């Protein structure tokens, strides 16, 4: 058997910790982290629990940490010696699956949907360019893994996912709520001197979402 | 342990159809539960291209014209009564989507920016686009579900409908994250589980959720399935590298006015590609492969370079790149920057995209032969006949989601106590519950992979009697192995368990496809047979209907009622008119051409 070249940090609910497991995976050209997970599952252990959906960077199911940074497994090239682990700051459930529910619940708690003042649909609408840049958010929840402030148990801080959604709504010409005030009440000022959050799809969260909500620049 | 829940309306599926129906029913005061097999809002709706039908952009357009285009493209297999319902309501689909929170692409001036040209099969420009394609629809659906307080059971797979005789009254389901079984009693149930593209993995554009669950749930509850041999293979998908096989990189339209579709020896296999339907292009490519002239990756060659030599071609390609950014992005990752710019040819082959066949319904989405059950979206059969034209599938979710949501809420308010045959329900639950810990010889995932390979090779874009018979034998073999599976004993997050449940649905759905394909002895729509290469309107202007009695499938062929659109009707764009426009354009100086096209394609608008 060849030397192991991939580490998967598998959360074990009985122990309450991640247990590193090493595997050998032949890294052919162009192979992605998702292919590595599928290979491990279909070669060594079919009980490896991980999520994936579309293989094409659009569904957002396969967000995981690779070497400590959030990535989409289907978009990320595999590398020798890499470590795949569950997203940080969310509750791990089993292996690399995390609990999405606490962030799902924030959608209704924080009214993260358009509160329209009754415009006619399909009518004239001036859409800011930064809206176009933000609306591609896959809701994969990868960004919260890169945020040093976020913790799913602490509801007083919004975190990057919530701020991206609030910024989308702030920039949506139909939305009638004060999303900047909402962001302030969720601790966005903590982000003003920080720019560690990253997006697996390359959304500039700090500039386009947090900057917009903080009223920086011309946004 | 079987947890029991109760509601007025149960929606099985949490893509566009399921959530629109749920929100609509909840707004009418119904208590609603939604089951979502994967994290909700992440399925085929989110990963769609985001093209949405708006059939009243051109003043000359009409519901009749749309209906004609759909039925002609569908090669007359469509359920015309259902098409009529759709076409009458289709103008409201896009409005409803914006009310849910989506914003369609606008010009800088703020007015809508529909695609200026008709998609293949359409007689008029009728398509809106969305910034970031289907992604914001997923976000909007989740927002709308939260707004009205719909209860979503996430990562929960329905394993059987429950009820009493022909009355459906909810479902038994597995909550995969915890391993808990639930029984949901419902006055009305709506199936919105999507299609079955995953039966062809990796040759599919679909999410891995699409394992055909809904067809099987319905069939086992006494429903019938219609024209299940009709799969849509979208012609242009990537052939390599391995992780990207089957991922879509284009409609026929991507060929542009001068793009050429060639075999590995450089011979043209089809002319005027962009005017052809998805079925026509996919069939031509599959036939060429059959004649042994595929590339080393098993594909054909789409050469876009002739476009770049002409103003019209260059402008059209620029426009298409902007309209389908994720497809171009996929090309860039697979074949490099030059390919993404159209400067080097693409290696392409069809991929399973949409299931036209499905559950037989009335024009108001009620399932034939079963009470208190609706079917909407891709799981429903008959709307698209033998071939679906672009931009209709997202619209259908909103048209039929709102229709079924309203009807189900109203019916639930008139439904009294619901009766459930508890012993059958408990039996099903106990069977599913007993799967973890089975110590047989076969891991379910390997049986799933074997089935997928068999279906792609034998029941894919090209078929014949020998291949179909072989597929049927293989399905029987896999079934025998299915009775000897090996499943980890763990209850929470157990992939073996989910695979075993999905395998069961995939086997039956696969068998229905194969048996229907064997019966249809002609080529029509997405069903292309080497041994019956012609469409045969005399013998086969029929719907193939499949039912199940005592665990045995029963097939019959029914005449298609041509109530509105008759054989010989014409649909789609007028190629002659377009050719004349091209000719006139090409006489003009390059600068003038450029100016006209920028205005027509909204290109200048972007900078």
From TrEMBL, chain A:
Keywords assigned by UniProt, alphabetized: 3Fe-4S, 4Fe-4S, Iron, Iron-sulfur, Metal-binding, Oxidoreductase, Tricarboxylic acid cycle
The EC number(s) this enzyme carries: 1.3.5.1
Protein origin, superkingdom: Bacteria
Any one Gene Ontology molecular-function term assigned to this protein's record: succinate dehydrogenase (quinone) activity
Cofactor: [3Fe-4S] cluster; [2Fe-2S] cluster; [4Fe-4S] cluster
EC class of the enzyme, as a word: oxidoreductase
Signal peptide residues on this chain, from the entry's feature table: none
InterPro entries linked: 2Fe-2S_ferredoxin-like_sf, 2Fe-2S_ferredoxin-type, 4Fe4S_Fe_S_CS, Beta-grasp_dom_sf, Helical_ferredxn, SDH/FRD_Iron-Sulfur, Succ_DH/fum_Rdtase_Fe-S, Succ_DH/fum_Rdtase_N
Domain 2Fe-2S ferredoxin-type: 4-90
Stored Pfam families: Fer2_3, Fer4_17
Protein name per the record: succinate dehydrogenase
Assigned protein family: Belongs to the succinate dehydrogenase/fumarate reductase iron-sulfur protein family.
Pathway(s) it belongs to: Carbohydrate metabolism; tricarboxylic acid cycle; fumarate from succinate (bacterial route): step 1/1
High-level lineage: Bacteria, Pseudomonadati, Candidatus Hydrogenedentota, Candidatus Abyssobacteria
Gene Ontology BP annotations: respiratory electron transport chain; tricarboxylic acid cycle
TrEMBL record, chain B:
Active-site residues, as the UniProt record annotates them: 278
InterPro entries documented for this protein: FAD-dep_OxRdtase_2_FAD-bd, FAD/NAD-bd_sf, Fum_R/Succ_DH_flav-like_C_sf, Fum_Rdtase/Succ_DH_flav-like_C, SdhA/FrdA/AprA, Succ_DH/fumarate_Rdtase_cat_sf
Keyword Oxidoreductase carried by entry: yes
Ranges annotated as spanning the membrane: none
Fumarate reductase/succinate dehydrogenase flavoprotein-like C-terminal domain residues: 449-565
Cofactor annotation: FAD
Name of the molecule in the record: FAD-binding protein
SUPFAM superfamilies attached to this UniProt entry: FAD/NAD(P)-binding domain, Succinate dehydrogenase/fumarate reductase flavoprotein C-terminal domain, Succinate dehydrogenase/fumarate reductase flavoprotein, catalytic domain
One Pfam family hit: FAD_binding_2
Keywords annotated in UniProt: Flavoprotein, Oxidoreductase
Start and end residues of each FAD-dependent oxidoreductase 2 FAD-binding domain: 8-394
UniProt GO MF annotations: oxidoreductase activity
Organism taxonomic ancestry: Bacteria, Pseudomonadati, Candidatus Hydrogenedentota, Candidatus Abyssobacteria
Keyword Oxidoreductase: yes
């Amino acid at each position: 058997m060849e030397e192991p070249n991939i580490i998967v940090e598998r959360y074990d609910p009985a122990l309450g910790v991640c247990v590193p497991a090493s595997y050998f995976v032949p890294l052919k050209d162009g192979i992605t982290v998702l292919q590595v997970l599928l290979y491990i599952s279909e070669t060594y252990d079919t009980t490896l629990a991980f999520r994936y959906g579309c293989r094409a960077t659009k569904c957002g199911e396969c967000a995981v940490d690779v070497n400590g940074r959030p990535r989409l497994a289907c978009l990320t090239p595999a590398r020798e010696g890499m470590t795949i682990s569950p997203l940080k700051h969310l509750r791990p459930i089993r292996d690399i699956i995390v609990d999405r529910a606490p962030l799902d619940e924030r959608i209704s708690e924080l009214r993260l949907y358009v509160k329209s003042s009754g415009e006619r649909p399909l009518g004239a609408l001036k859409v800011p360019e930064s809206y176009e840049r933000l609306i591609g958010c896959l809701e994969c929840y990868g960004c919260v893994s890169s945020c040093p402030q976020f913790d799913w148990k602490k509801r007083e801080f919004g975190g990057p996912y919530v701020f991206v959604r609030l910024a989308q709504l702030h920039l949506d010409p139909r939305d009638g709520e004060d999303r900047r005030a909402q962001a302030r009440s969720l601790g966005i000022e903590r982000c003003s001197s920080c720019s560690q959050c990253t997006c697996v799809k390359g959304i500039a969260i700090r500039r386009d979402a947090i900057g917009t909500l903080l009223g920086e620049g011309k946004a | 342990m079987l947890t029991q829940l109760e509601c007025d309306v149960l929606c099985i599926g949490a893509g566009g159809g399921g959530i629109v129906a749920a929100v609509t029913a909840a707004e009418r005061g119904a208590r609603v539960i939604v089951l979502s097999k994967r994290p909700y809002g992440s399925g085929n709706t989110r990963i769609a291209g985001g093209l949405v039908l708006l059939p009243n952009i051109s003043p000359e357009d009409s519901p009749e014209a749309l209906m004609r285009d759909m039925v002609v493209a569908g090669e007359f297999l469509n359920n015309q009564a259902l098409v009529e319902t759709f076409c009458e309501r289709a103008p409201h689909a896009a409005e409803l989507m914006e009310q849910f929170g989506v914003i369609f692409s606008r010009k800088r001036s703020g007015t809508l920016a529909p695609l200026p040209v008709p998609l293949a099969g359409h007689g008029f420009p009728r398509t809106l686009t969305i910034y970031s394609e289907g992604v914001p629809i997923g976000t909007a659906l989740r927002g709308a579900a939260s707004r009205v307080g719909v209860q979503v059971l996430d990562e929960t797979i329905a394993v059987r409908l429950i009820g009493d005789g022909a009355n459906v009254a909810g479902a038994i389901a597995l909550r995969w994250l915890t391993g808990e079984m639930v029984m949901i009693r419902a006055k009305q149930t709506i199936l919105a589980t999507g299609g079955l593209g995953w039966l062809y993995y990796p040759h599919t554009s679909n999410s891995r959720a699409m394992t055909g669950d809904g067809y099987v749930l319905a069939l086992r509850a006494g429903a019938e399935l219609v024209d299940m041999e009709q799969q849509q293979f979208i012609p242009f998908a990537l052939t390599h590298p391995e992780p990207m096989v089957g991922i879509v990189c284009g409609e026929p339209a991507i060929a542009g006015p001068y793009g050429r579709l060639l075999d590995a020896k450089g011979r043209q296999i089809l002319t005027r590609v962009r005017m052809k339907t998805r079925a026509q292009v996919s069939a031509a490519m599959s036939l060429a492969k059959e004649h042994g002239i595929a590339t080393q990756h098993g594909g054909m060659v789409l050469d876009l370079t002739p476009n770049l030599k002409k103003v019209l071609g260059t402008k059209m390609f620029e426009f298409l790149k902007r309209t389908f950014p994720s497809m171009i992005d996929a090309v860039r990752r697979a074949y490099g920057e030059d390919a993404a710019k159209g400067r080097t040819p693409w290696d392409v082959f069809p991929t399973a995209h949409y299931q036209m066949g499905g559950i037989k319904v009335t024009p108001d989405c009620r399932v034939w032969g079963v009470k208190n059950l609706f079917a909407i979206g891709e799981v429903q059969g008959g709307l698209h006949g033998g071939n679906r034209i672009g931009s209709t599938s997202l619209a259908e979710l909103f048209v039929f989601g709102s229709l079924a949501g309203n009807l189900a809420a109203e019916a639930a308010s008139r439904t009294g106590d619901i009766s459930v045959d508890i012993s059958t329900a408990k039996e099903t639950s106990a069977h599913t519950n007993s799967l973890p810990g089975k110590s047989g010889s076969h891991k379910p995932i390997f049986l799933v992979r074997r089935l997928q390979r068999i279906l792609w090779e034998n029941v894919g874009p090209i078929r014949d009697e020998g291949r179909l018979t072989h597929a049927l034998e293989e399905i029987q073999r896999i079934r025998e192995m299915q009775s000897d599976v090996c499943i980890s004993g763990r209850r929470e997050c157990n992939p073996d368990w989910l695979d075993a449940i999905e395998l069961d649905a995939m086997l039956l759905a696969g068998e229905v496809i194969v048996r229907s394909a064997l019966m249809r002895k002609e080529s029509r729509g997405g069903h292309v047979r080497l041994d019956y290469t012609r469409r045969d309107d005399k013998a086969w202007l029929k719907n193939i209907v499949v039912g199940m009695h005592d665990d045995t499938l029963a097939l019959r062929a029914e005449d298609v009622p041509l109530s509105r659109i008759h054989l010989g009707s014409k649909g789609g764009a007028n190629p002659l008119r377009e050719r004349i426009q091209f000719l006139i354009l090409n006489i003009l100086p390059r600068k003038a051409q450029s100016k006209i096209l920028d205005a027509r394609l909204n290109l200048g608008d972007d900078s």
